[in-house]
Amino acid sequence: MAKIVKKKASRRPRSAIIPGRRGKVNLAGDSIIKVIVVEDRGYIGYKGRQLVRVRYADPDSDPESSFEVAAEDLVLDKVRG
Amino acid sequence: MVAVHSAVGGTGPGRRYATEQVNNAYAVLLSSQFQKFCRDLHSLAADYIANLGPPSIRKVVMVRFTEGRKLDTGNPNPGNLGSDFNRFGFDFWDKVHSVNPKNARRQEKLKELNVWRNAISHHDFAAPQLAGRNFIRLKEVTGWRRTCDALATEFDNVVLRHLMTFGGAAPW
């Protein structure tokens, strides 16, 4: 009899903002930039908005330079697998 | 940390060599927590100003205020604080000095804390400000803590007053 192998559930939800995850931010108009999450800053923004520190995903950009965006403005890429 | 200091070294007179590590850890922890406070205050102010404008430019304003911020990677020393908070269109330290004459002395104490923080973190006690010393006492760290507590309140007031000049509702 074939053994039924259950897929182990992921520990974190796919919507989780965790360092290293990639996403996109539409700055203005057609200006969409690809970013990598550096840090979830939590609900510290004006009126308790969740802020996220991100850096440019472009390998030519300065890896030390980061900026913050509201979590609602960040569209995370889907997790593969 | 004060309780740990007492547990390790007791409360009687005399120098305690075993508590040096506790004092060092206390100073580094204090600096990091003050950095977190300043960073959060800066983010809150940036998000507030960004939300005053039209939604189309909100994100651009937010990026402008927070990109390459010194407090994200550096110590909360007076230079980094001035550099980051001056982005909001005012001379941060001038305002802080004007609200309370004690703040000039507190600025010096904050500088002192961060010199020690770097010395401890990098185990390099060669900075001329340390005058050849390689240990700190609990009394000094608790003094820096009082300074950070006082400066946190002053920074909060100064930034709030400045944000009110933009004409929106009180941010907090």
Outline the structure in words:
The complex is a heterodimer of chains A (81) and B (172). Chain A has 81 residues and is mostly beta strands. Chain A has a domain of 55 residues: SH3 type barrels (Roll). Chain A contains no helices and five strands. Chain A has a five-stranded antiparallel beta sheet with strand order 4-3-2-1-5, with no helix packed on it. Chain A is elongated, with a radius of gyration of 16 Å. Chain A starts with 21 loop residues before the first strand and ends in a 5-residue tail after the last strand. In chain A, 20% of the residues are buried. Chain B is mainly alpha-helical. Chain B has one domain. The radius of gyration of chain B is 19 Å and the shape is elongated. The model of chain B has no long low-confidence stretch (mean pLDDT 91). Classes of the chains: A mainly beta (81), B mainly alpha (172). The interface between A and B is medium-sized, with 20 and 20 residues.
Q: Roughly what fraction of the amino acids of chain B lie in strands? A: under 5%
List unreliable stretches of 5+ residues of chain B. Answer: none
CATH topology-level fold name of the domain at 22-76 in chain A: SH3 type barrels
Structural class of chain A: mainly beta
Instruction: Round the mean pLDDT of chain A to the nearest integer and report it.
Output: 87
Beta strand count of chain B: 0
Q: How would a textbook summarize the main sheet of chain A?
A: 5 strands, antiparallel
Distance between the termini of chain B: 31 Å
Structure annotation, total helices of chain A: 0
Low-confidence stretches of chain A: none
The H/E string of chain A reads: EEEEE
Mean pLDDT of chain B: 91
> Quaternary status of these chains?
heterodimer
Shape, principal axes of CA atoms of chain A: elongated
Chain pair sharing the greatest interface: A-B, 20 and 20 residues
Q: Rg of chain B, please?
A: 19 Å
The CATH class label of the domain at 22-76 in chain A is Mainly Beta
| Widest sheet, order of strands of chain A | 4-3-2-1-5
Spell out the helices and strands of chain B N to C.
HHHHHHHH
Overall helicity of chain B: 55-70%
